[in-house]
Amino acid sequence: MVNNLIGVKDILRILYFVVGIWIIYDIKNCKNYFKHSCGMTSMYRLPQFQTLHNDDKNNYRMYIYGEGNYFRKIINTNIFEGIPIIYIPGNRAPADMARSIGSILQNKTEMRNVPYHFNVFAAHLNEEPSTFDVKTLKRHAKYLEDSIKYVDSLYKKRNHKFVVIGHSISGIAFKIALSQSKWLRDNVKFVISLGTAYKEHQFKITGDFINLWREMNTMVEVPIISFHGGLMDENAEESLTGNDDGFSYNTQSMDRVWTMADHNCLVWCNQLQRLLFEYAEDKGDKFSRQNIDKVLDKIFNSTTIEYPVFSSNDKRFKLLNIEETSKNDYIFVIRKTNKNIGPLYQYYTTLKATKDYFYDHKMTYTYSLDPLANKISYYYDTTSEYKLIKEDEIVALSPSIASTKKNYRNSDKIRIFSIPFLSPNIVYRVTTTDYSKIIFKSKLNQAISQDNILIFNFFDQDDNENGKLFIIPHPEKYNDIKENRMEINIELGLTVIRVIKLNITSIPFMLSFIAMLFSFNSNILTKFFIFNFIIFCLR
């Protein structure tokens, strides 16, 4: 009879089996929500590469990329007059991934008939694996310095500094090159990195990696603009892509991208290349270390529309009647897109437009959403819809694995909920029964929905203040009194994935814990602890 009883060991096995199936189902279900809206680059002409510089010992090359008449002219004349862009592929990646960047830059400059063009160069690093080898990274860094100096010698007169685009681990290789070369620091305007873990290596296998990251993080002269794709980037943990001497942007928050991106999609997502055209057209000093943050905020965190200033007497505006405010009060204004006048203005000596955002991909509507500032007068476009949201109207939520449901009406115009900070490991999913826009904002992170679904998380441990969740119904439905429902829950499967990504170097310790629960075998457990001790000493 006793032998037939289910023991603790059997119960734990059954529990882990059930939880495991649940997690797998949850992850599979969540994959349906991961959709790209990155603009894909199409090439209607034959992409071509020509070798300019080589290192035969290591089989490294520097290519020029081009298409059609432009490429033939470059090859025949060997005259380089364009804005120099250097693309560096990631771990074991080919140089021909530069074609997405090169093609769109060439096509757009030709279609716009602008008085400038780009020269796109691509480094070929023999498709070497470099993720786990410090020596290879340093060798790549040395070649990049030498080859870029050679490219510089091809210009009789170079009017722009170099812009370098590094994908994945190659962003690290180039930062090493920058830290070791004053010439590069003097001749590179800024660096764009795509899915690069600057804070620390995810696999701190030896002390060499820790020392290397510590050394290169002392370099601050050249602005580094880091893009990450969020949970969908299977190779780079987003919280590691920020860097103390640069700027970090999430594709999920970028204007009209509004989606996570996998590791390779970051390269061909053509919305990221707006920055290069802004740089080409800069006649002043917008891209200096002191001013570049304003340019980046405009390009990646607003509509980019530049509105004129107005007098407070202009009849197109109306003063908002605002009583005493708190720091948690908000003003929301939305209206049809009008490039001549902004939706919301603050009054100083004149009316200056606040930052606004597109509501939809078709750019039909723009809106402003700002915390109210004390002792500031606000004016809004009289064709707009607006709403003041007081702090006591913000509803506090306590999400769990089970869905939390809240109702709202289209006529509300906007609803705001507070999300408590519990851990950066936790991943949340929000859905609505209609196609309302969903926005999450925390101290360090922002995410905007695609369709009626939003998956988000807090950025890291420093993102430790409560976040805000905004639900904005479509403005064409404000007269509809229909009641809609918002649901929020913790996604268990994605939370497990994020825990693993954040704690990847602690996997041996996790294995020990699992072994203990499954086996209760002291010999196996001892071996795991010895293995863990060795890994810990190597970290």
Explain what this protein looks like in three dimensions.
The protein has 539 residues and is α+β, with helices and mostly antiparallel strands. It folds into four domains: 48-300, 3-Layer(aba) Sandwich (Rossmann fold), CATH 3.40.50.1820; 317-387, no CATH class; 394-494, Jelly Rolls, CATH 2.60.120; 503-538. Helix content is 29%, strand content 25%. The chain has 13 helices and 25 strands. It has an eight-stranded mixed sheet, sandwiched between helices. A five-stranded mixed sheet has the order 17-19-24-21-22, with no helix packed on it. A hairpin with a 3-residue loop joins strand 11 (344-347) and strand 12. The relative contact order is 0.09. GO terms for molecular function: phosphatidylinositol deacylase activity. InterPro entries: AB_hydrolase_fold (IPR029058), PGAP1-ab_dom-like (IPR012908), PGAP1/BST1 (IPR039529).
Kindly summarize this structure in a few lines.
With 539 residues, this protein is of the alpha+beta class. Helices cover 29% and strands 25% of the residues. The chain has 13 helices and 25 strands.
Question: Could you list some keywords that capture this structure?
Answer:
Rossmann fold; 539 residues; alpha+beta; 13 helices; 25 strands; single chain; Jelly Rolls
